[in-house]
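Extended Data, panel c. Modelled sequence:
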Amino acid sequence: MSFQSGKINAETVLHFPGGVATAQVPRSEVLSSQRVLSSQRVLSSQAASATAEPLLPVLIVLHQETSTPGRVGNALRALGHRLDIRRPRFGDPLPKTLDGHAGAVIFGGPMSANDPDDFVRQEIDWIAVPLREQRPFLGICLGAQMLAMQLGAKVAPHPEGRAQIGYYPIRPTAAGLAICPGWPDHVYHWHREGFELPVGAELLAEGSDFPVEAFRTEHCFGFQFHPDVTYAMMHRWTTRGHARFELPGARERHHHFADRAVHDVTERAWLKAFLVGWLARAPLPVMSEAAE
């Protein structure tokens, strides 16, 4: 945003009479007045914060005991949202409506969207809620595969058994750039299954071994990659999941950290911008309730 000022000349400025003696105010009184004004501003700001209604929480669905929402969770908290963390795998129920939430995120996990486990089927079926209510939904890796399956698309391993473990290039489409510019050209992956583009969905980014990297239908988005991974998470994954480095196509461990140093700044900035726009997709009644 830029501000354009008019021309400054003798006719557009205020003139103060010269030659008039002004009273000198002692410096101690000036400093005292400034402190009073500063205190009043702080108290006013605190009062406004106390009376403002908190933003609606974001539903967070995780799949392991030690899983965290990582950078996505950090970004949502920084935007003022509480996190309603649930683990259906361990018996946590999912809400029947998202009326009380600003949006929902289903994260990744070592399981497959094709697994017959009850909680996997439950989560896939539950995605019908944000689809029906037109609420912001984001699926990351496994969560994206669940969204694709809910929409009738096939989820399957690569036909040649290849995996993506590490940083790989992606190419945002014109639709993806329109949704959120500034996409990183490499993003972090940890998967060996991919999915077809669901019928009627919009392709936002494409890749090589796994062509569908990001897509959306209405306010529901699916990312095959992991913008949620923090530096600490990368250490845990590459230590506990070191066997994955033997898969065809996987990148060696040291490349994960070297590539992060190159690509992470862009990915972090893009994620923040995306989440701001994603949350703004909440229906007007929900947004107005949060502002009341």
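Confidence is low (pLDDT under 50) at residues 1-23, 42-50, 286-292. This feature is highlighted in the accompanying rendering.
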